[in-house]
Amino acid sequence: MTTPTLRSDARRNRERLVASARELFAAEGVDVPVEEITRHAGVGMGTLYRHFPTKEDLVDAVLEDAFAELVRLAEEAAAADDAWAGFTGFLEQALTRHAANRGLKDVLASEHGRQRAQAMRERIRPLLRRLIERAQEQGALRPDFTAEDLPLVFWTAGRVIETTAAFAPDHWRRYLGLLLDGLRAEAASPLPAPPLTQAQLARAARRQHG
Amino acid sequence: MTTPTLRSDARRNRERLVASARELFAAEGVDVPVEEITRHAGVGMGTLYRHFPTKEDLVDAVLEDAFAELVRLAEEAAAADDAWAGFTGFLEQALTRHAANRGLKDVLASEHGRQRAQAMRERIRPLLRRLIERAQEQGALRPDFTAEDLPLVFWTAGRVIETTAAFAPDHWRRYLGLLLDGLRAEAASPLPAPPLTQAQLARAARRQHG
DNA sequence: CGCGAAACGGAGTGGTCGCTCCGCTTTCTG
DNA sequence: CAGAAAGCGGAGCGACCACTCCGTTTCGCG
Predict the structure, then answer these.
(1) Which nucleotides in chain C lie less than 7 Å from some protein C-beta?
(2) Deepest of A62, B66, B81, B142, by most Cβ within 10 A of its Cβ?
(3) pLDDT at residue A209 greater than cutoff 90
(4) pTM beyond 0.90
C-alpha cells in the first residue's frame, strides 16, 4: 500500500474516473464500455489504463464502499437476538443494494471480483454461517438449509432483479417472500439433493459469465 | 406452408444444418457461433443463410420438437386429478428438459424465440392457468400465487441450472424443493408486492439478454 | 448430354469490445 | 524559468460476432 505521491493532474483524473465509473456501473452494470467511462470522465483511455491495469481492477476499486456496506450489514445481522429476523433482514438489505446498484449485482452474482470482492466474501461468510446455525437452533430456519445454499438465493434473486427492476423495482421482494416461506422450519419437506460442497461452489463462481 | 421442392443437395444440407445445430445448441447453448455450426455440418455460411434468414430462425426451427414436448407435458399435467402433483410434476419435467438442453433454456428463459416459441407459450399458458386454479381450489397451492409468477420460477431455476449443471446436474432439484415448500398453501405468509401484470411480463420478456 | 437455374462456400464487411502504443502536453523541481 | 520526468489522449490492434456477396460448382430437366 505505498502511495507514491501522484502528480496533481493524475490524482484528479483518477478521482474523476472512479466517480464516473461508480455512476455508470450503478446505473448500467459493469458491462458499460470503458470508452464510455473515460468519455464521461473527460479523460483518455490511456489515463484509465495507467491507473487500473484491467477493467476488473477498476470495478473492484469502485465497488469497495459497497462491499464494506455489505460487511456492515452482515455484522448487524449477526448481532440480532432474533436470528430469523437477522437472516431475513440481511437478505432484504443486501438485495436492496443489489437492486440499486447493477454493478454490485453483476460482481456478486458472478463472483467476478478481484481481491476486494473476495476479501468481503471471506469476512461475511463466517458471520452468516453462525447466523444460520443460530436461526436453526431457535427453530425458525429449516435445519437442512446450509451456508452453501445462500449463493442460490443471491443468484436467483439477482435474476429477478435483472429481469424486472426496470419497471417493477420492488418485484424481487415478492420472489424473496415466496422463497423465504419455503425456508421456514415448519415448511420443510425433504430435499431431493444435497447442498453444494465448497469445492463445487468455487467452480460455480468461475462458471458465471466469463 | 408451401414446400417449393428443394433440390436434393439443398434438402440434404438443410437437414445437416438442423442436426448440427440441434446437437451444438443442446450442448453449448444458442450462443455457439454460426461458423461452428456450419463447420460441424460441413457446409458454408452462405448455405446456412439461404435456408434461415437469421440465426434466430434456425434456433426456432431446431427447437420445434422441444417446444412440442413441453406442450405435451403441460397437457399431461393439466389432466392430472391431483392438481398439485400435476403442477410440481410439470415443473420437474420441464426443468429436466431445460437442464438437458442448454439451447432450450436459453430461449425459454430469455423469451428470445420466434413464432414457434411464441406459439408454444400461447398453447401452454391457459393449461397452466387452469392447473394453478385447480391446485388452489384443492387447497394445495397458496392462493396468492398467480400464473404471472410462473416465469419467476423458470427464470430463477434457469439461473441455478446455468450455474451448477456442469458439475452438479441435479442441484436445481434442491432449489426447486426449497421454492416449492414456499408455494404450499400452509407455508403462505403475506407477500410484500403484487404479481407482475401481463404488460410487465411482456416487457420482462424483451428485457432478457438482447 | 448439355445447359440454365439453383445451390454452394468462404473471404470479406461492419459492429463491438478490452486494451496498447507513442507522440504530445503538463507538472514540478532545482 | 527551463528541462526532465510524469502523465496524457485517442487512433489503432486483435479477437469475436452475425451476416453478405459473388465467382464457382452441382443438379436435373429436356
Answers:
(1) 6-12, 16-22, 26-28
(2) A62
(3) no
(4) yes
Q: By the CB < 8 Å criterion, does B84 face chain A? A: no
Distance between the alpha carbon (CA) of A44 and the C1' atom of C30, Å: 31
CA B103 to chain centre: 9
Stretch A86-112: mean pLDDT: 93
Phi, psi of A178 (to 5 degrees): -60, -45
Bridge partners of B141, per DSSP, are B184
User: Which tens digit of pLDDT belongs to each residue from B4-22?
Assistant: 789 999 999 999 999 999 9
Show the cell assigned to A85.
429476523
pLDDT of A113 > 80? The answer is no
Q: Which of A77, A74, A64, A73 is nearest to A104 (CA)?
A: A64
What is the predicted pLDDT for the residue at A115? 83
- The mean pLDDT value for B34-47 works out to 98
R_g over Cα of chain B: 19
Place of cell 469445492: A199
* Axis-axis angle for helices B171-183, A171-183 (nearest 10): 100
At which residue does the C-alpha cell 452494470 appear?
Answer: A29
Residue B45 (CA) to nucleotide C9 (C1'), in angstroms, measures 7
CA neighbor of A124 nearest in space, from A99, A144, A154? A154
Q: Which chain B residue is nearest to residue A204, measuring alpha carbons? A: B163
> Dmax over Cα atoms in chain A, in whole Å?
63
